[in-house]
Write a structure and sequence with these properties.
With about 500 residues, the protein is mainly alpha-helical. Helix content is about 75%, strand content about 0%.
Length: about 500
């Protein structure tokens, strides 16, 4: 059977543009909720919660929604990765973008806090899936192109989204006034404008979060399917995937939410002690890994029974799944536990004449993240994969300690060190789009990447919930964030057990 026609340079470029835009809007929407989440919850809880109890309810619901987002993204990475390996990268990526765009937009019509939690969970399924699918697609289409450039562009994309959110936050008042004028000019009423724009225009911003759905038309018209996946389909290897295996993903998602609940204020109020939470976490995380791995394990068993792969290949893929997930988890925990806390921490310091410090901090970290994420894959090509990951871990630990241990006020050094920390800790997200595709053959690439990158979000969620305990143990927020960055030490050791893939063609 003849191989499908190789994609044109235009097709490859359109695939990269689609993946870049998809991940950029992912970053925008991930950064948007911290900006408008509390105003949205104040609006939704106002009719049922007394003013004196509002603060506690806000913090509780905010934590729940963030946690459900992380679990949803992890689940979506596995589910849509499975779908991409079964029905093709392009179709699955279209569905993932549709999911996160439409359900983000529907949040603008929520009338209860739990509506937002459920809709954000469903939206995050698509966000987690889009990364795995976009990375698989562009790597398979760019096998003869500059894969380092592709990896850097995807790694930087989400940080462009974060940068846009920070810029929007700085101009929020002007933005709201402009939107009000446009709504009235188009014939809308004052009541409509008030409904959409009150409480920092959270409804309007959620609704326009549906706009990325337009990327689907770009994808379906201009983006070609991966020729490597088409070869796998022609060889009959895609038939080894089975829908009933997804029950493991469902079980994993439910248990992951249970782990998050055990560490949350709701779990504490229900009488869950720290020891109980540790036991729930250890046992539950083993169940999560089992559940998320079930589809690919069953696939490999069927493929081996049909003599499509060898036993040695099956064991190698299983090992790479676990190592890749741990490497990604270390990077994500460092990001969510330390780097992502920088804007919040900036508001605790002496302003020293500065205003809008949280926004300027996010701009500093985002610009650094864009530049370093684009550079990291080129460094991996100059050195090799293991040494590059080691250098990133050493540098990220040093940059985080520099930022949190040398600042006690807002000044130019604060923003310079924020730039360095944000950039170096984000360099991993330019590295992973280059490295993770090299760990898996085409037949399981999207599923494997989705598992590795997104199970790391569960690790990050669990670690992030320990910040309050770390503050109690180490005395200050800065010391707590610094202590959490010790996770990079684990990465410095673990990377030597990971395969070196420099110079290998994608299987």
């Amino acid at each position: 059977m003849s191989s499908p026609k190789a994609p044109s340079s235009t097709g490859r470029n359109m695939a990269l543009i689609a993946a870049f835009l998809g991940w950029m809007f992912d970053g925008f929407e991930m950064g948007l909720f911290p900006l408008i989440g509390k105003p949205a919850l104040q609006d939704l809880l106002a009719s049922t919660v007394a003013p004196e109890a509002m603060s506690g309810h806000l913090d509780r619901w905010f934590s729940v929604i963030i946690a459900t987002f992380l679990v949803g993204a992890a689940t979506g990475g596995v589910f849509f990765g499975w779908l991409g390996d079964r029905i093709g990268r392009v179709k699955a990526m279209s569905l993932s973008i549709f999911t996160y765009a439409i359900f983000t937009g529907l949040c603008g019509f929520a009338t209860e806090a739990w509506h937002v939690a459920i809709l954000r969970f469903i939206a995050s399924l698509g966000m987690g899936g889009e990364w795995a699918l976009g990375v698989a697609l562009v790597n398979e289409l760019w096998t003869k192109g500059n894969r380092a450039l592709v990896a850097g562009a995807i790694g930087a994309a989400a940080n462009f989204g974060y940068l846009l959110v920070a810029a929007l936050s700085l101009g929020m008042n002007t933005f709201i006034d402009t939107m009000r004028e446009w709504i009235l000019a188009m014939g809308g009423s004052e009541s409509m404008a008030g409904y959409l724009l009150k409480n920092q225009a959270w409804r309007f911003l959620m609704i326009i979060g549906a706009l990325p759905a337009g990327i689907i038309f770009l994808i379906r018209i201009f983006v070609p399917e991966s020729d490597k996946w088409e070869d796998e389909k022609a060889a009959g290897k895609t038939s080894f995937w089975s829908t009933p295996d997804l029950k493991g993903v469902l079980i994993g998602a439910v248990v992951a939410l249970g782990i998050i609940w055990s560490w949350s204020p709701m779990g504490i109020e229900a009488g869950v002690t720290s020891l109980m939470a540790v036991v729930i976490t250890v046992v539950g995380f083993a169940v999560v890994v089992w559940g998320y791995l079930l589809p690919v394990r069953r696939y490999l068993q069927r493929a081996q029974a049909a003599n499509s792969i060898t036993r040695e290949s099956q064991l190698t893929i299983g090992k790479n799944l676990l190592i890749g997930a741990t490497l990604a988890g270390i990077a994500l925990l460092g990001t969510w536990g330390a780097a992502q806390q920088s804007a919040k921490w900036s508001t605790e310091l002496a302003p020293n004449g500065w205003t809008n410090v949280a926004q300027y901090t996010q701009i500093s970290t985002s610009v650094g993240a864009i530049l370093f994420a684009m550079f990291a894959p080129f460094l991996a090509n100059m050195l090799n994969r293991r040494i590059t990951y080691l250098v990133m871990c050493i540098s990220a630990l040093g940059a985080a300690l520099l930022f949190y241990q040398t600042n006690d006020t807002i000044n130019y050094w604060f923003f310079t060190s924020a730039f360095l920390m944000g950039g170096i800790t984000a360099s991993f997200y330019g590295f992973f789009p280059l490295y993770l595709p090299e760990l898996f053959p085409t037949s399981v690439r999207a599923t494997g990447q989705g598992f590795c990158f997104n199970v790391g979000r569960i690790i990050a969620a669990i670690g992030g919930l320990q910040i309050a305990n770390l503050v109690h143990a180490f005395g200050t927020s800065a010391n707590a964030y610094s202590a959490l960055c010790a996770i990079y030490l684990v990465g410095m050791v673990l990377v030597w057990f990971a395969p070196e893939t420099k110079g290998r063609a994608l299987a």
